[in-house]
Structure formats: structure tokens, C-alpha cells
Design goal:
The chain is α+β, with helices and mostly antiparallel strands. It has 6 helices and 4 strands; from the N terminus they run ααβααββαβα. The protein has a 4-stranded antiparallel β-sheet with strand order 2-3-1-4, sandwiched between helices. A hairpin with a 4-residue loop joins strand 2 and strand 3.
């Protein structure tokens, strides 16, 4: 019987969870996301499993922070995390990887189902009354590595964000 050893083991396990968890939202942190992304790549390489990835970024967080304070900005970040989590299933992993940037990993998403699949998250964001931009891409065996898919999803998200900022013609 080794109570000190068990205590150290529990402390190490708690430290590991805390290191992989975003303190504001309770979602995976950037560090936790890195591990999930590595695992997804290994699954693609080993089994050819299709994996989708989306990047979500709050629109106008700076304006919210400037006008209403950082507490209001934090509340919006938390609300976005909750909206994404509310529609996530067991095949999803969600992380907050930066100030107002979230990522979603979705196992089993193919080129034919990706747009419909990620539309569920877009609707949840809109239903929560949050303005955010979302871009997605796929990691595919022998074709697209997860890092490249993440880069493509990020570029798509920024295109959407730019289009939203264009003045509307009436």
C-alpha cells in the first residue's frame, strides 16, 4: 500500500487534464488539440478514416471588448463554446486554440457529407445569437494531411469573415 504514490499519481493525472483544458471554456486547449490532431492523422494513415476539421472564429470580438469590456468578450467566447458543444456528438472533438478561435474535429465525415455536417454547427451558432465565421476541410488518406486540412479550413474561415465585412449594396 503506497498512499503517497497514489496521491502523486492523482496529482499527475489532474495536472495532465488541466494542461489539456482551456480554463475559460472547459474545452480542450491548444495543447490538447495538438494531441487530438496527431491521433486523427494516425487514424487516417492506419485505417484511411475520413476526418473533417473546422475552424470557427468569433466576429468582431475586439469591438465587443472595446465597447463592453473583456468580461463581455469572455461571455461571448463561453457562449460560443457552449453552442458548439451542445450539438457535438461522440465523434467530435472541440477545442479553443486561441483568444476567439475554436476548432472542431469530426471523425467519419466524407467529402459528400462535410457541408451538411458542419452546417449543424453554423445553425447552433446562429441560434445562440452569435456572429462567427466557420471554414472546414477534410483530411484524407494519401491526399491531405491534417495540418494542411486545418490550414485550408482556416483560409476558408477568413474568406467568409472577409465577405461578411464587405459593405452591403442596396
Amino acid at each position: 500500500d503506497d498512499p503517497d504514490g497514489r496521491r502523486r499519481g492523482r496529482q499527475a493525472a489532474i495536472a495532465e487534464v488541466e494542461a489539456n483544458t482551456d480554463p475559460l471554456t472547459g474545452l480542450l486547449s491548444r495543447r490538447g488539440w495538438g494531441r487530438i490532431l496527431e491521433d486523427a492523422q494516425q487514424r487516417i494513415d492506419a485505417f484511411g478514416d475520413p476526418v473533417g476539421v473546422a475552424v470557427v472564429d468569433l466576429d468582431d470580438l475586439k469591438a465587443i471588448n472595446d465597447e463592453h469590456g473583456h468580461q463581455a468578450g469572455d461571455a461571448r467566447i463561453i457562449a460560443l463554446g457552449r453552442a458548439l458543444s451542445a450539438v457535438a456528438g461522440s465523434m467530435h472533438r472541440i477545442a479553443r486554440i486561441g483568444g476567439d478561435e475554436f476548432v472542431i474535429l469530426a471523425y467519419g465525415v466524407s467529402a459528400h457529407t462535410a457541408a451538411t455536417h458542419f452546417k449543424v454547427f453554423t445553425r447552433a451558432i446562429e441560434k445562440a445569437g452569435i456572429r462567427a465565421s466557420l471554414g472546414f476541410s477534410l483530411g484524407r488518406a494519401g491526399d491531405t494531411r491534417m495540418e494542411a486540412a486545418l490550414h485550408d479550413a482556416d483560409a476558408q474561415m477568413y474568406r467568409q469573415k472577409s465577405e461578411r465585412k464587405l459593405p452591403r449594396r442596396e
